[in-house]
Design brief:
With 268 residues, this protein is an alpha/beta fold. The chain folds into 2 domains: 180 residues, P-loop containing nucleotide triphosphate hydrolases (Rossmann fold), CATH 3.40.50.300; 76 residues, no CATH class. 36% of the residues lie in helices and 22% in strands. Strands 7-8-9-4-10-11 form a 6-stranded mixed beta sheet, sandwiched between helices. Strands 1, 2, 3, 5 and 6 form a 5-stranded antiparallel beta sheet that branches. Helix 3 packs across helix 4, helix 3 runs parallel beside helix 5 and helix 4 packs across helix 5. The chain is globular, with a radius of gyration of 19 Å. One of its GO terms (cellular component) is plasma membrane. Keywords: ATP-binding, Nucleotide-binding, Transport. It comes from Paenibacillus thiaminolyticus. GO terms for molecular function: ATP binding; ATP hydrolysis activity. This is ABC transporter ATP-binding protein.
């Protein structure tokens, strides 16, 4: 089952072919071939230890594959370091928040804006340029529903607010492809709807390709155009949500026990 169907080559923003990585003889990701369509929302699911975060580490350049290739907009990026992939238009969030606690919320996002434009932190920048950076930073904060917290120190934010700040920083880089690694990890049940609303807004804009790792199946089914299932490091299935939910192999290997396992909402 292939969720991309007969998509044209120029509709594919990211593709892997036979992607494999082994640690000490054990393949954490084994022969994974995926195609991710432009401006679509794809979720990657699987039980703990299925290889989801390892796959993201390969896609974003934190790890180098043992075998296989990764192509972004038909350019081979298999050997490129993370910063080169970022410059090409890939952005990634992590399971743990990655913000500067001793800066304000606005300053965090402003630094991301400056980074995208190749401008170093410079307190002697012209007032006009400084205002432009801050106005854009405020725009991204408004988008993630954090605009009223722009003057707060990042260290004072609740965990869910820090996740939203991280998303604003990621959006400020204006990536073409967003890799979201469990954006609801570690946040309270009460905070989940706010994160879901932000991600839904990002999807509805239709300007970005989004790939999500998430254990919360209600969220996955609500957002996804297609779903890929990893199991034991292998790609078990890839298709539309209704195809995945009715796939007997997926049910037997993963979905059948998912709803009985309260711990499935945490971990890798």
């Amino acid at each position: 089952m292939n969720g991309t169907g007969s998509a044209r080559a120029d509709d594919i923003v990211l593709a892997t072919d036979g992607l494999t990585i082994a640690f000490g003889g054990h393949a954490a990701v084994r022969d994974v071939s995926l195609k991710i369509e432009r401006h679509r929302f794809k979720s990657i699911i699987g039980p703990n230890g299925a290889g989801k975060t390892t796959l993201f580490n390969l896609l974003s350049g934190q790890l180098r594959p043992t075998a296989g290739t990764i192509r972004f907009n038909d350019q081979d990026i298999t050997a490129l370091p993370p910063f080169r992939r970022t410059r090409l238009g890939m952005g990634r969030s992590f399971q743990l928040t990655n913000v500067f606690p001793n800066l304000t919320v606005l300053e965090n996002v402003r630094l991301a804006v400056q980074s995208r434009q190749g401008v170093r932190l410079n307190w002697h920048a012209s007032p006009r340029a400084f205002r432009r950076f801050e106005e854009e930073a405020q725009h991204w904060l408004d988008m993630v529903l954090l605009g009223n917290r722009s003057g707060a120190m990042a260290s004072y934010l609740a965990h869910g607010e820090k996740r939203k700040l991280e998303l604003a920083m990621l959006l400020a880089l204006q990536p073409e492809l967003l890799l979201l690694d469990e954006p609801t990890a570690g946040i309270s049940i009460e905070e989940v709807p706010a994160i879901l609303e932000v991600i839904r807004k990002m999807k509805e804009e239709g300007k970005r390709t989004i790939v999500l790792i998430e254990h919360k199946m209600d969220m996955v089914l609500d957002l996804s155009d297609t779903i890929a299932v990893l199991f034991g490091g292998r790609l078990l299935a890839d298709g539309r949500p209704e195809e995945i939910m009715s796939n007997e192999t997926v049910q037997a290997a993963y979905l059948g026990g998912l709803y009985d396992d309260a711990a499935a909402s945490a971990g890798n």
